[in-house]
Structure prediction request, 426 residues.
Amino acid sequence: MRPLRNLRWYVGGLLFLSTVINYIDRQTLSVLAPYLKGEYHWTNTDFAWVLISFRVAYSVGQTLAGRVVDRLGTRRGLSLAVLWYSLAAMATSMASGLRSFAAFRFALGLGEAGNWPGATKAVSEWFPRKESGWAVALFDSGSSIGGALAPWIVLTTYHAFGSWRPAFVLTGTLGLLWLALFRWLYRRPEDHPRLSAEERAYILSDRDATAGVAGDDRRLPYSTLLRLPQTWGYVISKTFTDPVWFFITDWFAIYLVSKGYRLEESLAGFWVPFLAADLGNFFGGGVSSALIQRGWSVGAARKAIAVFGTAGMLLLIPTVWTTSFATLVGCFAVSTFAYAAYSTVILNLPADLFPSGSVASVSGLGGTGAGIGTIAAIYLTGWVSDRWSFEPILIGASVVPFVALAAMLLLVRNTRATERGDVHKI
Prediction:
C-alpha cells in the first residue's frame, strides 16, 4: 500500500472527531434540559440526579476503561467504548421519566469513560513528546467543538420533529459512523501498513530516547502507581479542575434561563465559551510544546501554563454581579480559555511521566478522581441553586483550581520509578 504522508496527524484527526461526537452525545441532554424540566416538572435537584447518574458511571468507568484499554490495546479498547456509548445515546430516546433517564445516562457514562484514556494512550503511541502537546490539544479541543455544535444540532432536530426523542437517535448515530472510519484506519505505528519508514523511525526513535528502553510497555500495578506522588499530583489536578468545565457543559443552558435569557435568543452567545475553550486547548498545548522546543524542561513548560490557567479561571467571579449579557459571556469565555489551556497540560502528564503500558491506567485514575469531584459539584450546584442562586457556585468554581495548581507544583515530578530521560526531566 502507498504510505500516507504525516499519518500521525490523520490519527490525531480521528481522535478529535471522537471527542467531538462524545460531547455532542452528552450535551444533547443539557441542551434539552429546559424543555425536559418543564415536561417532567423537574427541579434543579432532580436534574442534578440525572447528571450524577452519568458521572457515577463515568468516574468508575474511567479507571476500568483505562485498564481495559491498556490490556486490549487502543484499537479494540476505543472501538468498544464508542460502540457502547453510541448505542446508549440512541437508547435514551426511549426514556420516559427521571429513573429511565438516569439509567440511560448511567449506561452512556460507562461507555464515554473510555474516550480520554484511549485517546491519551493513542497520543503516547503515535506522537513524539515535543508534539504531544499539540496532539492532546487537538483531540481535547473536540470537547469544546462538540459542545458548540450540540445546541444547533439538537435544537434544529427538536424543532424539526417537534419532539426531543429524535435528537438522541441522530447524535448517537454519529458514533457508529466514526467507528467504521476508525476501524479502517487505526493501527499501532509499529504495525501500520500505510506508515512510511521515515515517519515510523521518527516516532519510534523519539520513544526510545524518552522512555529509556525501546518500546517501554510496562504495565505498572496499581499498588505501585498509587504510591507515586506524581500519580496523586495528576489525580488531584484533574479532580479540582474538571468540575469547572462540567458546570459550564451541564448547567450553562439552565444558568442562562435563570438569568432571564431565552435559550433560542441567547444561542449566539452560548457557543462563545466553547469556542474560547477550543482556542485554549491549542494555546496550552502549543505554547508548552514551543517552550520545550526552546529548551525548557517538560515540567517547567507544563507548570507555566498551569499557573496561567488557574489565574484565568478567576474571571468567573465578575459574572456574579454583571447584568450585561456580553460581559457575562466574555467572562465565561476567558475562564474556559484558561481552563482548557490548563486541562491540556494535565492530560499530557500520564504520557510525560509513565511508560506506554501504564498511560491509559493513570489517565483513568485521574478521570475517576475528576468524576468524584464533579459528582460532588453537581449535587452542590443543584442544591445551592434551588435554595439560593448560582452565584456561590461560580465563586467556588473560581477558587478550587488553586488546589489543583498546588498539587501540580508540589507533586508532579519524575522519580526513578518513572524516569524518561534527562532531556525531558520533570
In short: The chain is about 75% helix and 0% strand. The chain has one domain: 7-424.
